[in-house]
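Fill-in record for Replication initiator protein RctB central region domain-containing protein.
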Amino acid sequence: MTLFALFTLTVQYHDHHIADYEIQTRSMTNKTPVYITDILALRGKKDSGPARDSIRESIDRIEFTDFQLHELTGRWMSENMPEGFKSDRFRFLARTITASEEAPQEREDGEIRIKPNLYILVWEPSFFDELLTRDYFFLFPPEILRQHTLVFQLYTFFRSRMSRRVNDSMLLSELNQKLARNIECVVFHRI
């Protein structure tokens, strides 16, 4: 969910500054400042030390994970996918530049760790270009990003399914089989 929040904040940031780019006749740069507090707010989480640490860990995982195309099955595959996705391996982020008000700390295992509050995101170039084409395949309403993971899963499942159909119906048991084979139907009734 942090990844989708980063997509949304990137598009919002550059949309907000589009007039500045035009006035100053400069092109949009592939650098997006994102504060941890903005990610927390977008996801509907309270600002706390553990919540910030969780976001930091998510961003680290996003930055250092190589994804493989075959991992994006079903609803993720689209003709609108960026060029970077068409290779066997890809990353969303080329790198992050961090800023922190706290001094770096040495952990018990000897690793030096900083706790950044600001990230400047540098997306993979082909992905950045695609993200800002206004074909918002990867963007989600902020309300969905604040919901339980299961609600987000339901939203993405039906968003993909309805993009190919005008009318659709499905039994709850069928939905359970498709989304969460290990979750009982009872869980869907509690939401």
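KEY FINDING: The mean pLDDT is 75.
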